[in-house]
Amino acid sequence: MSSLACIVTWSQELACEVLKPGDLAVDLTAGKGRDTLALARAVGHCGQVVSFDKQAVALERTCELLQDHGYPVNNWANDREIPPGSQIVLVHACHSSLGKMLQRRPKAIMANLGYLPGGDHALITSPESTLPALTQSLGLLSVGGRLAVTIYPAHPGGTKEAHLVDDLFFSLPREMWLVLLLRVANRYEAPYLLVAERLR
Ligand SMILES: C[S@@+](CC[C@H](N)C(=O)[O-])C[C@H]1O[C@@H](n2cnc3c(N)ncnc32)[C@H](O)[C@@H]1O
After folding, report:
1. Residues of 4-37 as b/e, b for ≥16 C-beta within 10 angstroms?
2. Measured in angstroms, how far is the CA atom of residue 21 from the centroid of ligand 1?
3. How far is CA 144 from the centre of its chain?
4. pLDDT tens digits for 109-164?
5. Residue 170 Cα to ligand 1 middle (Å)
């Protein structure tokens, strides 16, 4: 695939661009851990990344990848506030519990929707939890922070989710948010990226 259409790479670059060492970042869909790893590199060893997934197998993959790259990983098994300190925190829960778990405002939040690559294609993100998680994320972001969402419009259920996420991002007030849409213009089925940056 041409690097032009590698939306996941654009997503990581645009989310990580606003991060500096010591920041808090969130991955709403840990999956195989590639986004979590990119965020971990950007916040450095004094920062923190909190990563959610509802599938244990995804968190195992993420844990392996992060440990292979020398990052200490902690698992968080309840829905109480996560204390600062641990660098990578893996949360086995639906991302819609995000709002009650963070003690400070994140600077970047990523969500890569759809199913775990190589996993069960029936276990996809769904608007019932995606929309609350994204709405909470917008409320939590610090000024200058970004929410980057990769959307897959072509798989079963993906079209409805894509329309609802579009509605949320396109309706954000322009005084408070700058919203970028990045997509392959002549491939309607290709994944695309929405990034919202908080202006104030
Ligand atoms: C496309 S994958 C994420 C890829 C990942 N960001 C990476 O870098 O490898 C989507 C993931 O979302 C997870 N997921 C689906 N619904 C979820 C929910 N409600 N809460 C948390 N994770 C969810 C799936 O289990 C799957 O692992």
Report:
1. eeebbebbbebbbebbeeebbbbbbbbbbbbbbb
2. 25
3. 16
4. 999 999 998 888 888 999 999 999 999 999 999 999 999 999 999 988 899 999 99
5. 23
